[in-house]
From TrEMBL:
ABC transporter domain sequence ranges: 22-263
GO biological process: response to antibiotic
Organism: Microlunatus soli
Lineage, uppermost ranks: Bacteria, Bacillati, Actinomycetota, Actinomycetes, Propionibacteriales
SUPFAM superfamilies named in the record: P-loop containing nucleoside triphosphate hydrolases
Keyword vocabulary terms for this entry: Antibiotic resistance, ATP-binding, Nucleotide-binding, Transport
GO terms assigned for molecular function: ATP binding; ATP hydrolysis activity
Domain of life: Bacteria
Protein name as annotated: ABC-2 type transport system ATP-binding protein
Cited SMART domains: AAA
Gene Ontology cellular-component annotations: plasma membrane
UniProt membrane topology term: Peripheral membrane protein
Cellular compartment(s): Cell membrane
Pfam families: ABC_tran
The keyword Nucleotide-binding belongs to this UniProt entry's keyword annotation: yes
Length: 335
């Protein structure tokens, strides 16, 4: 295991299996299952190992059903691992020690605010401050900051159950950060938010991480979000880490192709180009992209320059959405 003490998050062969009942459809099957239950085991996370240093913002991405939420739940102590070890800030999360809980926050887009929805936002904020023992001397300042930065003033007197999704998420973020957590787990935090609300959210997270030095782990299917916030990407697939590195290198790592982007000279015969690679996109009539195997990029570039004499040529990795789409579709296990 690598330097577990120097890391804020350390995960070593972490595994989670669920035992779920199996039942065929229909009344007869329902009756039979009352006396003879059958189960199957779903391995959601399989011997996962990685570490996260203090102050990093890490994007945890992967297809549906890859094991992201299950991992987040183990790292925040909601789920007990089946095997392996997780340590966050030196604590084993499943023990749910008060000191550990007071230093982390989990925000889930699917369940932004827990607790009674009849209470007002102000009640929730003050209750959270008490629960996390925020010193009385700073409570008012903290609340004022949240009101200002997240625009919560107008919502303070409203019942949580009457809030829209976007308002709920703003409140949830305020609640998650009011005790100044050192590690923040964000699980699909901007799901369903409009573009402007999502942007505000990202700005606040980025600012919070930069000013407090907090460590952030983010799962998201929005690549722009991951791109905006994360220096490092962990790609999880079928419960195991498939890639660990920068977003820029991800395309190079996953895709066997590169794209030659050409601005064509007037009158160029596109059929000539088709011989050198698959034409993948034509944003403008005089532009074309050719998909070319990585190994033959240099040779193909030379041939295209000689034969088609384009006005401009650049070699780029394919767009990340395209790469991930191809990768997710190619998975044998599905989700
Ligand atoms: N409580 C549970 N009981 C049985 N199986 C579960 C349970 N929770 C998760 N799973 C299974 O574990 C696997 C991983 O699920 P998980 O929710 O961690 O995926 P995810 O990467 O977060 O997916 P998504 O992007 O769709 O949110 C899936 O096959 C899922 O069906």
């Amino acid at each position: 295991m690598t330097a577990i003490r120097d890391r804020v998050i350390s995960v070593d062969r972490l595994t989670k299996s669920f035992r779920t009942p199996v039942r065929a459809a229909g009344l007869r099957a329902a009756a039979t299952s009352l006396v003879r239950r059958r189960h199957r085991t779903v391995r959601a996370v399989s011997e996962l190992s990685f570490g996260v240093d203090a102050g990093s913002v890490v994007g945890f991405i992967g297809p549906n059903g890859a094991g992201k939420t299950t991992t987040m739940k183990m790292l925040t102590g909601i789920l007990h691992p089946t095997a392996g070890v997780a340590q966050v800030l030196g604590h084993q999360p499943h023990r749910r020690e008060p000191e550990f809980l007071s230093k982390i926050a989990l925000l889930r887009g699917s369940q932004p605010i827990s607790g009674p929805s009849e209470l007002t936002v102000a009640d929730h904020v003050r209750y959270r401050c008490l629960l996390y023992r925020v010193p009385r001397s700073v409570i008012d300042d903290r609340i004022a900051e949240l009101e200002r930065v997240l625009g919560l003033s107008a919502l303070m007197g409203r019942q949580v159950r009457g809030l829209s999704l976007g308002q709920r998420m703003r409140v949830a973020l305020g609640l998650a950060l009011v005790h100044r957590p050192a590690v923040i787990f964000l699980d699909e935090p901007t799901i369903g938010l409009d573009a402007s609300a999502a942007l505000t959210f990202r700005r606040y997270i980025a600012e919070y991480a930069a000013t407090t030095g907090a460590t952030v782990m983010l799962t998201s299917h929005y690549l722009t979000e991951v791109e905006a916030l994360c220096q490092r990407i962990l790609l999880i697939d079928d419960g195991t880490i498939r890639y660990d590195g920068t977003l820029t290198d991800l395309a190079a790592n996953l895709s066997p192709w590169k794209e030659l982007r050409l601005t064509l000279s007037p009158g160029t015969d596109r059929e000539v180009l088709r011989r050198h690679g698959e034409i993948v996109d034509r944003p403008e009539p005089d532009q074309i992209s050719l998909r070319v195997p990585r190994a033959s990029v240099a040779r193909t570039t030379a041939a295209v320059l000689a034969e088609a004499e384009p006005l401009d040529l650049s070699v780029v990795d394919p767009p990340l959405e395209t790469v991930l789409d191809a990768y997710y579709r190619s998975r044998p296990c599905g989700s």
